[in-house]
Design brief:
heterodimer, A: about 100 residues, alpha+beta, five-stranded mixed sheet, about 25% helix, B: about 600 residues, Aldehyde Ferredoxin Oxidoreductase,  A, domain 1, Aldehyde Ferredoxin Oxidoreductase Protein, subunit A, domain 2, Aldehyde Ferredoxin Oxidoreductase Protein, subunit A, domain 3, 3 domains, four-stranded mixed sheet, 18 strands, globular
């Protein structure tokens, strides 16, 4: 299956990419996708975003990750299987005021 | 004790051109701390709630805080409190830059403008005293030009200023007062300046700022810097993004999460958002970040002057709110136009939020057959996505020309005049036009827009919590409580006149840490928040007396319609949900069913009697 990964703002500069399309095995998890993604982005993005995301209990970078327009707040969600057509976005945070 | 205060207030009477100095009492400081606290306390006692905002009896309270002028980061804002011509209630409005520090160095904590000058004047407060100068030559001049004129004419190159443009002079109800490109935007403070014939206020001071406990303050500063440094060290730092791209850095997320009101709330997401967001502005225009005094974020983006088909632009911004109001809401994807319109708003002195909503409202009225597409005159078609029409309409509003005269009154009054069902889609609460964000999507935003003392205001909403889905954005559970708590905390931080962004990083205890070391007082975080609640209630009581009752804690019907691209898996706002939110809110606040604070709650807050 194919997974589209988009990057915006600072995360675009950090990853060196605007969009990446990953070819993945059926039923693979978000964790598998993130490991695959490492090969497609700059090392700074891997060390500052992906590796911390793959650590246990590291919720910091989770706030940058939006799957199908929803944020995730549990590290456990990283191990859930992806579906064909899912869209993953790395987006800078925002507040109002 | 109170070393960080000047402990003096200056009254400048424009009618008889006199000044009077008054002490600020210990009791006033201990109860209301400064900034918004001083302004609200003074206005609610001195300005009758039922007078017209343009009556000379209305006053302008320009307030700074105990941390103003110190090295505490993100405390360089100034607060203006006045009676709003837009909502008819009390308004507090803020701008950063350098003016707050300049006021502090004059030896006053509050400047009050009273009465009305018999002709257009500017006023300067310098070491030589207060000067009143007639300035018919500044009539209609853009703010920047008027500010420069006053600085040059006064002979002080270190003067800082607050001024108005044509919109303020023409009493546009959402005219802003501008301080060197920073806008006191919301609620029409600029129009109150105009009603008093006050074009520019210029300030120069010489005084230093002291603190009560220098060593303790230094340590508190270090703790504060550590908190900001820690936040800024992460790639996911919100403030880090603001410093590199400006507040527009968040538009990509807002759009992806389907809360970016587009084409007058018909859609929740804008297909061309990436043409007008923060990144687009960084990509297209040469930019330099600037910051307020003692700031370490530097969110203000100054762009290189640009030639456009409408004229030359030199401006700061636009902020994300303008990307919504004049951008997506009007279905505009032309960044040159957005850049130019932002410059128009600064030149004329107008709140870009209310302005954009008024422009979009006119476009929606054309779509619904209430206004003619030819309303702008020959050569223009009033329609969504038309940049020329947007620029033209902004000029017409500032000049009160043709349809601009109607829209200069704001969408509430315009819809009352137009009727034909337009009140159902006039994006306003209590007369104030919607800020960005969609009540249809976010229950906390719905509650905040409906209950805020300023009207449909975003300054005290749980936006981050909902947007980042730390709480489900479409649930009513616990939402009213969350809204009230944020309203209280932010009100408390505004007594220090902190930048709104400080609260994104600092907890109430950290604000209190700075306050106590600077002033010698011994606030607890709980007392600090309770003071915020007391101020909220003081404003509420004033608004009730002004005739703004519970029926105005409401949202227009358009918020209960489902936008065409409403995302799957979320519930749109219903009347039933909204009623729960308001009922919960009144209960949590200790108000009765008519939205009036109970005597018991007022007593608890020290407001009885």
């Amino acid at each position: 299956m194919k997974l589209v990964v988009r990057f915006s703002g600072l995360l675009q500069s950090l990853s060196g990419k605007k969009e990446v399309e990953l070819g993945l095995k059926e039923d693979c998890s978000l964790r598998d996708a993130l490991i695959e993604l490492k090969k497609n982005v700059q090392p700074e993005f891997v060390s500052q975003i992906i590796d911390p995301l793959l650590e246990e209990n590291n919720t910091g970078p989770l706030r940058l990750l939006v799957k199908n327009h929803r944020h995730m707040h549990s590290v456990a969600e990283i191990d859930l299987p992806l579906k064909d057509g899912d869209v993953l976005s790395f987006l800078p945070p925002m507040e109002g005021g | 004790m109170y070393e960080c205060y000047n402990r003096k207030l200056l009254r400048i009477n424009l009618t008889d051109r006199t000044v009077r100095e008054e002490p600020i009492s210990e009791k006033m400081i201990q109860h209301w701390v400064g900034g918004m606290g001083f302004g609200v306390k003074l206005l609610t006692h001195e300005v009758p709630p039922t007078i017209d905002a343009f009556d000379p009896e209305n006053k302008i309270f320009i307030c700074i805080g105990p941390l103003t002028g110190t090295i505490a980061p993100l405390f360089a804002q100034t607060c203006i409190v006045t009676k709003s011509p837009l909502t008819t209630g009390i308004i507090n409005t803020y701008a950063g830059g350098q003016i707050a520090t300049a006021i502090k160095s004059t030896g006053y904590d509050v400047i009050v403008f009273e009465g009305k000058a018999d002709q257009l004047i500017y006023v300067t407060l310098t070491p030589a005293g207060v000067k009143f100068v007639d300035c018919p030559e500044l009539k209609g001049k853009p703010v920047r030009e008027a500010e420069e004129y006053v600085k040059t004419t006064s002979g002080y190159d270190n003067m800082h200023t607050i001024g108005i443009g044509l919109a303020g002079e023409n009493l546009i109800r959402y005219a802003a007062a501008i301080s060197e490109t920073r806008a006191f935007g919301r609620g029409g403070a600029g129009a109150v300046f105009g009603s008093k014939n006050l074009k520019v206020f210029g300030v120069v001071g010489l005084n230093d700022v002291k603190v009560a406990n220098p060593k303790g303050f230094e340590e508190a500063i270090e703790r504060t810097y550590t908190a900001f440094r820690e936040d800024l060290s992460h790639p996911w730092s919100l403030l880090g993004g603001f410093g590199r791209i400006g507040t527009g850095s968040g538009v990509a997320l807002i759009n992806d999460k389907h809360v970016f009101a587009t084409r007058y709330h018909k859609y929740t997401s804008f297909q061309h958002a990436n043409e007008i967001d923060g990144e687009a502005f960084m990509r297209k225009y040469e930019t330099r970040p600037i910051g307020c005094q003692s700031c370490l974020v530097h969110c203000g983006m100054v762009r290189k002057p640009l030639e456009t088909k409408w004229g030359t632009i030199w401006t700061r911004g636009p902020e994300y709110e303008t990307m919504y109001s004049i951008g997506s809401l009007c279905f505009n994807d032309n960044s040159d136009m957005l850049y130019y319109a932002n410059d128009q708003a600064e030149k004329y002195g107008m709140d870009t939020l209310s302005l954009g909503v008024n422009v979009a409202f006119a476009m929606e009225c054309v779509d619904r057959g209430i206004l003619s597409k030819d309303a702008l005159g020959e050569g223009y078609t009033l329609e969504f996505g038309n940049p020329d029409a947007t620029v033209r309409l902004i000029d017409m509003i500032a000049a009160r020309e043709g349809i601009g005269d109607l829209l200069a009154e704001g969408v509430k009054r315009a819809s009352e005049k137009l009727n034909q069902g337009s009140q159902d889609f006039a994006l306003q609460v209590k007369g104030m036009e919607f800020a960005a964000w969609m009540p249809e999507r976010m229950r906390g935003v719905a509650t905040t827009f409906a209950t805020a003392n300023r009207g449909a205001c975003h300054k005290r909403a749980p936006i981050g919590m909902e947007l980042m889905e730390f709480v489900p954005m479409d649930s009513t559970e616990g939402r009213a409580e969350l809204v009230a708590q944020i309203q209280n905390v932010v009100n408390a931080t505004f007594t220090l006149v902190s930048c709104r962004f400080a609260e994104f990083v600092l907890k109430p205890a950290q604000f209190v840490d700075l306050l106590n070391n600077a002033s010698g007082m011994s606030f607890t975080a709980e007392q600090f928040e309770l003071m915020g609640e007391a101020i909220w209630n003081m404003e509420r009581m004033y608004n009730l007396a002004a005739g703004i009752d519970a029926s105005q804690d409401s949202l227009p019907e358009i918020c209960f319609k489902v936008p065409l691209d409403f995302p799957e898996g979320y519930k749109p706002l219903t009347h039933s949900d909204f009623n729960i939110l308001i009922k919960d809110y009144y209960e949590y606040r200790g108000w009765d069913a008519s939205g009036t604070p109970t005597p018991e709650r007022l007593e608890k807050l020290g407001l009885k009697g």
